[in-house]
């Protein structure tokens, strides 16, 4: 029987950002998910302009990104986490490079798998892995709501973000969340293959687009990583991908569509899931949006989503 991947996610308080939505995959889920900006609105404004010009931009900061969205919009979405802005008297607020070359020699060394029994209170629980977890707020929000039913692992290439995320989960007292600073392209297989429980969900949400064609090899999703995800995913497990950049979304979709004997798109097993005419899932199924997703939708950008399920033929 398929694992209830999105079960136990409680209803988020209704506000101007959220609309009521039918259950995503499992009938036991009762939640609200965000409204997608209608496609008739053009993709204008700061964030989308930044996206289109990112290949020629210099290092950006989280502070810079926040100026492109309405004041406090991310803070409001994640308000119930009550995270401190200054996480360390020594480090204070972080200025983070948004773009990292994952092929740099120092980032091609696989991370050692931790002692999972020390990392998680119950290392046999189903596991979600978020590749490119960024600040970690998205994963922490899920972990807080599923503290006894699922473990959450964030893989992030920028170590300062991981340092802050680990500080935050300790502050929240979360025993089912962990972050590792690593290059997922080279570490995913080693990490998940040693995990005692089943891998039930892998998410790759709004990864760095690396627009220039010569930089496409830097994109996180390459065939070896796809093979590793598919081979380690438990039966009934799912893959959730999304991007506000169509070219990146198509690139990811093509990789996962290429293994139809192992993965099927969720609309083929759940016809009630709303998709547009091109097969993109209309709403974020997780009950909370990522920070980049919040910025993009605020600026009127469309989010391209796909959800795959592992099947046995």
From TrEMBL:
Its EC number is 2.1.1.33. It comes from the Eukaryota. It catalyses: guanosine(46) in tRNA + S-adenosyl-L-methionine = N(7)-methylguanosine(46) in tRNA + S-adenosyl-L-homocysteine. GO terms for molecular function: tRNA (guanine(46)-N7)-methyltransferase activity. One of its GO terms (cellular component) is tRNA methyltransferase complex. Signal peptide: none annotated. Keywords: Methyltransferase, S-adenosyl-L-methionine, Transferase, tRNA processing. Coiled coil: none annotated. Transmembrane segments: none annotated. SUPFAM superfamilies: S-adenosyl-L-methionine-dependent methyltransferases. One of its GO terms (biological process) is RNA (guanine-N7)-methylation. This is tRNA (guanine(46)-N(7))-methyltransferase. It comes from Solanum tuberosum (Potato). The gene is LOC102584671.
């Amino acid at each position: 029987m398929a694992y209830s991947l999105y079960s136990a996610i409680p209803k988020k308080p209704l506000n101007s950002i959220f609309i009521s939505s039918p259950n995503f995959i499992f009938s036991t889920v009762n939640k609200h998910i965000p409204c997608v900006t209608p496609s008739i609105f053009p993709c204008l404004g700061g964030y989308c302009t930044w996206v289109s010009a990112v290949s020629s931009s210099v290092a950006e900061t989280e502070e810079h990104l926040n100026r492109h969205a309405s004041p406090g919009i991310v803070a409001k979405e994640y308000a119930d986490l009550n995270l401190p802005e200054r996480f360390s008297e020594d480090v204070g607020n972080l200025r983070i490079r948004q773009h990292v070359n994952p092929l740099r020699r120092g980032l091609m060394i696989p991370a050692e798998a931790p002692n999972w029994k020390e990392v998680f209170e119950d290392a046999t629980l189903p596991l979600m892995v978020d590749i490119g977890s960024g600040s970690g707020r998205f994963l922490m929000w899920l972990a807080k709501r599923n503290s006894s039913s699922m473990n959450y692992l964030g893989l992030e290439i920028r170590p300062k973000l991981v340092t802050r995320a680990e500080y935050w989960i300790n502050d929240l007292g979360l025993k089912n969340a962990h972050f590792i600073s690593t290059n997922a392209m080279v570490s995913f297989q080693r990490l998940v293959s040693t995990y005692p429980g089943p891998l039930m969900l892998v998410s790759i949400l709004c990864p760095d687009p690396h627009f220039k064609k010569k930089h496409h090899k830097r994109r996180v999703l390459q065939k070896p990583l796809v093979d590793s995800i598919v081979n380690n995913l438990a039966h009934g497990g799912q893959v959730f991908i999304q991007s506000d950049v169509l070219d990146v979304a198509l690139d990811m979709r093509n990789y996962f569509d290429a293994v139809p004997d192992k993965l099927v798109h969720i609309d083929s097993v759940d016809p009630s899931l709303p998709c547009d005419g091109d097969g993109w899932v209309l709403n974020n199924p997780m009950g909370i949006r990522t920070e980049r997703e919040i910025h993009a939708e605020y600026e009127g950008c469309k989010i391209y989503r796909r959800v795959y399920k592992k099947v046995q033929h």
